[in-house]
Amino acid sequence: QVQLVESGGNLVQPGGSLRLSCVASGFTFGDYTMAWYRRPPGKEREWVATIEFPDGATVYADSVKGRFTISRDNSKNTLYLQMSSLRPEDTALYFCNRKNKLINWGQGTQVTVSS
Questions:
Q1: Residues 6 or more apart from 9 whose CB is under 8 A from it?
Q2: Parallel, antiparallel, or unpaired: how do β-strands 3-7 and 46-51 relate?
Q3: Are 108 and 94 in contact (CB under 8 A)?
Q4: pLDDT tens for residues 21-66?
Q5: N-to-C CA span, the chain
Q6: pLDDT at residue number 95
Q7: DSSP helix/strand/coil, 88
Q8: What are the residues whose beta carbons fall under 8 Å from the beta carbon of 40, sequence distance 6 or more?
Q9: What is the widest separation between alpha-carbon atoms in the chain?
Q10: Percent of the chain whose pLDDT exceeds 70
Q11: Which end of the chain has fewer CB atoms within 10 angstroms, the N or the C?
Q12: What string of DSSP letters covers 11-59?
């Protein structure tokens, strides 16, 4: 069964850090370009970052460039998003998925940045 399970979200103060994880199952994780997305309150889902197959090159949305780092551990079928210098506008439900050939979305993990 193809599945994505996100975790690691929390309430954090502005300027704080969080690391999100996404465990994939049901497909050959290491063979795919993977990405993080987010859906801010009342807005559409937006792309955040990509880590490409096979070279591992990373690409970021301008809004998170220099603050977020995407990485992966293919031995654990896990995608990560290290977030630092968090801002209130980073508040969103965060999801992972394949960059191309999307599969069913997971539940997401909530990140709330507030003092």
A1: 18, 20, 93, 94, 108, 109, 110, 111, 112
A2: unpaired
A3: yes
A4: 999 999 999 999 999 999 999 999 999 999 999 999 999 999 999 9
A5: 40
A6: 98
A7: helix
A8: 46, 89, 91, 92
A9: 40
A10: 100
A11: N
A12: EE-TT--EEEEEEEESS-GGGS-EEEEEE-TTS--EEEEEE-TTT--EE
Beta bridge partners of 12: 113
Read off the tokens for 71.
């990485």
Q: Which of 64, 107, 71 is nearest to 86 (CA)?
A: 64
Residues in the chain: 115
Instruction: Output the CA angle 6-16-63, nearest 5 degrees.
Output: 70
4 strand-pairing partners: 24
Nearest to 101 by CA among 10, 34, 47: 34
Give the separation between CA 30 and CA 35, rounded to whole angstroms. 13
d(CA 31, CA 39): 26
CA distances from 26 to 56, 72, 102 (A): 21, 17, 13
